[in-house]
Amino acid sequence: MPPISPTRDVTGSLTARLFIQESIANQGHVVPFFLQPTIGGSDLNGQAILSSYPDYRFRGPDLLWMHGAYEQSLGKFPVGLFLGVDEAKVGLRRDDISFNHLRHSYSAGLTLHAGGFLLCMYFSAGADPKADTRLPM
Questions:
Q1: Which of 1, 2, 71, 93 is 20 to 30 A away from residue 85, measured at CA?
Q2: Is 50 left (phi over 0), alpha (psi -120 to 50) or beta?
Q3: What is the pTM of this model?
Q4: What is the pLDDT of residue 1?
Q5: Average pLDDT for residues 60-76, to the nearest whole number?
């Protein structure tokens, strides 16, 4: 009888990101709204930040975003599980950017790895009553 291995050959990943963006304008001037970063849903570049909110829900010249995710494959199959959390905030002034009163979005779903292509289908829910449950792909 072959020996039984105490571990399984599976792979997973843990991701943590912190992103801070500050805009600078001359005194008496403001950053035009179309150049300000947005959070909620996906931004113009397709980056999902607070995916439980509608696209472009919050906008401001300064941005704080924290993202954490865990992905685990299911055995030798190209399918995996995904868990993620986003916390973000935009502000009109630099003083508005702090780690207080952040908006939250929690995600859980499945991933499919096919060659170099990754498909992630997940449900997102927010901690705010104005957020809703969404199925981004």
A1: 93
A2: left
A3: 0.72
A4: 46
A5: 86
pLDDT at 129: 57
Tokens linked to 80: 């995996």
Tokens of 84: 């993620």
Half-sphere exposure in the Cβ direction for 110 (13 Å, CA): 5
Residue 34's identity, in one-letter code, is F
Token pair in block for residue 54: 């509608």
Contacts of 118-126 with CB under 8 Å at 24 or more apart are 120/82, 122/51, 122/82, 122/84, 124/51, 124/52, 125/52, 126/50, 126/52, 126/53
Beta strands in 1-136 (DSSP E): 12-21, 38-39, 58-59, 62-73, 79-91, 103-114, 117-126
Q: For residue 114, how many other CB atoms are within 10 A of its CB? A: 8
Helix, strand, or coil (residue 35):
helix
- Per-residue pLDDT averaged across 78-106, rounded? 85
Output Rg (C-alpha) for the chain, integer angstroms. Answer: 19
